[in-house]
Amino acid sequence: MRMSRIIGHRGLAGEAPENTLAGIRLAAEKGMKWVEVDVTLLGDGTSVLFHDRRLNRTTNKNGRLQSLTVSGLESVDAGSWFSEEFSDEKIPLLKEALQLINQLGLGVNLELKTNGCSESGLVEAVVNSIAEVEFPKDRLLVSSFNYRALVRFSDRSDIPVGCLFERLPLNWRKKALRVNAVSIHFNSKRTSKRQISRVKSAGYELYCYTVNSLMVARQLIEDGVDGVFSDYPLSDD
């Protein structure tokens, strides 16, 4: 299995602000072996960890993320919205996040979020950051809902790829073959034993998002799912 049974969603989004270094550190402290984070671009083409198009939900600023450049990141608080404990937590550069993840010995699923930015620019920035950090490929997987971005990435890099779907489309296998995918990821609420069987019998690993119940996680894994993305470190403890 490429990833772990429980993968920290956006770091560990139930216990720390999403897509932050604090969340990644906490995931490691809680015993997680893999995390998933979102990657997109600022207005100047700098790759950062961030989910939304707009700053409003998870920072002290308003407006579009692409209105920011790297020089403006210092003024953005990406932690206080979650808890005062995380006051002044910053939007991390992808390079910074990869360095930390590597130091902690974690694996990472990078989800490409185009959010209106250049697909080719995002792919190039991600490939360059991975190369600069020299992040090991056996602890790395890249996925995206944006199929065009995933095609660009797979054509540009031999880093393993996962196809990300809201629900499993009829042509999922054709898409997976085009990008040499090693895994399929889709919504836990829109799956079935039949779909799980189809994906697994075709030779792909299967991961479901976002599962915050240990009971649901157990059932999915019993049905054949390899792992789940969770906001919490699900365990029997």
Poorly predicted tracts of residues: none
Quickly give the structural class. alpha/beta
As for the CATH topology, it is TIM Barrel
Q: Domain count, please report it.
A: 1
Major β-sheet, in short? 8 strands, parallel, barrel
Compute the separation of the termini in Å: 23 Å
Determine the CATH superfamily.
Phosphatidylinositol (PI) phosphodiesterase
The counted number of beta strands is 9
Radius of gyration: 17 Å
How much helical structure, as a percent, in the residues? 25-40%
Strand order of the largest sheet: 1-2-4-5-6-7-8-9
The CATH class turns out to be: Alpha Beta
What form results from the Cα inertia axes?
globular
CATH architecture: Alpha-Beta Barrel
Describe it.
The chain is an alpha/beta fold and 237 residues long. The protein has a single domain, classed as Phosphatidylinositol (PI) phosphodiesterase (TIM Barrel, Alpha-Beta Barrel), CATH 3.20.20.190. The protein is 30% helix and 19% strand. The chain contains 7 helices and 9 strands; from the N terminus they run βαββαβαβαβαβαβαβ. An 8-stranded parallel beta barrel has the order 1-2-4-5-6-7-8-9, surrounded by 7 helices. The protein is globular, with a radius of gyration of 17 Å.
